[in-house]
Amino acid sequence: MRISYNWLKDYIDLTESPDEIARLLTHSGLEVEKVEKYESIKGGLEHVVIGKVLTCEQHPNADRLRKTTVDVGAETPLNIVCGAPNVAAGQTVVVATIGATLYPIEGESFTIQKSKIRGEVSEGMLCAEDELGMGKSHDGIIVIEKEIKPGTSAKDYFNIEVDSIFEIGLTPNRADAASHLGVARDLRALLNRNLKKVDLKNFQPGFKASGITVKVENTKGCPRYTGLSITNVKIAESPEWLKTRLRSIGLNPINNVVDCTNYVMHSLGQPLHAFDQDEIKGGTVIVKNLPANTEFITLDGVKRKLLDTDLMICNSSEPMCLAGVFGGLDSGVKNNTRHIFLEAAYFSPETVRTSSMKHGLKTDSSFRFERGTDPNMPKVALRKAAALIAEIAGGEISSDIIDTHTETFPPFRIETTHQRICKLIGKEIPADRVLEIIALLDIKLAFRNGDLLVLDIPPFRVDVQREADLVEEVLRIYGYDNIELSDHLSSEFLSEFPAKDSDHIHHLIDQTLIGKGFQEILTNSLTKASYNELLSNQADAVPILNKLSEELAFMRSSLAFTGLETIAYNINRRQKNLKLFEWGKVYFKRGTKYIENNKLSVFITGNQHAESWNIPSKAVDFFDMKNTVVQILEKLNIPVTQVQEITANPVFSKGVIYKNGGKELVKFGYVSAAALKATDVKQEVLFADFDADLLLEFYSNKSKYKEIPKFPEVRRDLSLVLDASVTFEQIKELALKTERKLLTDVNVFDVYEGKHIEAGKKSYSLSFTLLDKEQTLTDQAIESTMNKLMQTFEKELNTIIRK
């Protein structure tokens, strides 16, 4: 929502800067997202002055150009070449001097520079309307008929308005602040300053009947309807001040009548609508619901079918307006309109919201009505708008106000105590200060008995319905920053902040994989029944009741097969080197319950690199996939606490499982021959199956730091011969379990099976890194540690140490 700083001054005196006002509003709950400078003419006519043409001669090198000298109040006149047909000596003109940036009505902006035009020096430009952005005329330069002192600023002469516009992120509950008056009310409370009354002195009602009868059949949808007639109006452009006001908040002027209704709506927060009174058939306005599917053409020319819940403003034979949302094509103000019927009403928020949502119509009017307007404002706004229309459109208010609800709408009543207010705020605020804030918010003290406060909340504060709402109002005006933290404030638990965001984790992993050359895929969640047979989980599979074909008979229980289908499709089109990943869901049935799990699948197949003269081709292998898996886990700061070999899995021929706390983070390895055959893939594929829900659970955005060791580390190597079934992870786990203090890392740098090694055996060459954080390691400590490790390997793993 856009609010004008200058416009606010119509309702409250402001001496504070726009930035200070923005700070105050933001701290009180009306968040100012940005402050923009607005100029009624873009650029503000900086470096543009009024000048006097002293001489005007034919350009020696161009028939259509003139050489002029122009007095702009400087020591010497400016030489300016001009192509305007109407330029002449003695004229008072508008001059853009060197350095001025102009923003024409059409085309790009440009800056005036000293230049030569057809061989003659030109030190400025004599301007036409469209070149300054002041109008559309390009018939010639602007000629001012009266004498003006040369050098006078064009900004001052043309009274260019400079304003600051607040872009307020209005929350849905603050409907009362959806106007300049509403924002001024908050500033009144924040600054303890008087609010100016709405100026209604120019309203002079007629004393005869308007000739229009109003009937409200749905009083729940329209508790109040007011209107009056204005005759003999002349539809034309609005005066410049009104157009400037509307443009400053982003509205395009339409005509003087419509502009007046928009101006009053943004001033007071009350939407209005002007009907062409001659189009009100039967002289009757009826507020009612029409049968479903009744056709109605809205102001935008769209034919719509109404719902039976739509509240309509009708004449005696047809609908004219979708109440509180949008006007009709035929009943609105047109260029030939002479008499208008001006409406201001209070419509039920629920009714307007339903119609606005169902028809997809979001207007400034519906924005306010569906949040809740002031039921006591229609008559005030009607008088304000009628007086303004009569003033600028030349009309006459020919009737008194028709009002279907002449009584004032009562306030809401809330009971509380001063003690309760202070307790909820967390600070003892003097009772006099609390009552002062309450009064500044237009809340009336209906009754006071000791500490008990009975308060009347004005109807326009639809967001203040409970005691907690009232306390929030006191607090935001008193100032959140004025509430000190208690010395006794403590907590036994600090929640993680910010909360884990699955989208953020997706983004981290996406960037990691894309950086490694992967491409994201999206596959169908419906798959073949044969895949479930291969997985041997038909009992847990989720069938489609109304399946389109056998190819789409089940919800997928693994991302493997749909990914492999994508790989087969690409290989068949000669794309054999593939790196793919996919986020998706898998589906299971457990008894009568259905389960959805989030997964991340990663596929690698083909060669590591495309063919190149300087890089030899090499097929991807297990360690390429392992490197990718490790990078993903490290990116999320997820440690692997257990490694287990995959056994008897229909998707994998061989591979490993990484776990954390006994939970499977990821399975990865080579895809089984059966799975490749089922999807018609004729080359090796590596596949990683991540549990995306566990990635989110174990993700940590906290980096861990530790001091760089002060003492040197030592490396020792061992060569072990052991059973071929023993994995490196088993050796590493045993080593770290045996020596917890000094051993910091174990690495394998060679594995050998073959000649000179007994069948069923293999040889590991391992490096062990030792470090004592408290002192330099001695030879005795190193030897003792290595002997302990060798003894453990010989005992636990039946190892032969090659010395």
Defining key terms:
21 helices; alpha+beta; 803 residues
Structure description:
The chain is of the alpha+beta class and 803 residues long. Helix content is 26%, strand content 28%. The longest helix is centred in the last third of the chain and has 18 residues, at 779-796.
**How far apart are the termini?**
81 Å
Strand order of the largest sheet: 29-33-34-38-37-36-35
Proportion of residues in helical segments: 25-40%
Total of helices: 21
Instruction: Estimate the mean pLDDT confidence.
Output: 92
Instruction: Report Rg.
Output: 40 Å
Q: Sketch the major β-sheet.
A: 7 strands, mixed
Strand content: 25-35%
Low-confidence residue ranges = none
Structural class designation? alpha+beta
Shape: extended
Please give the number of β-strands: 42
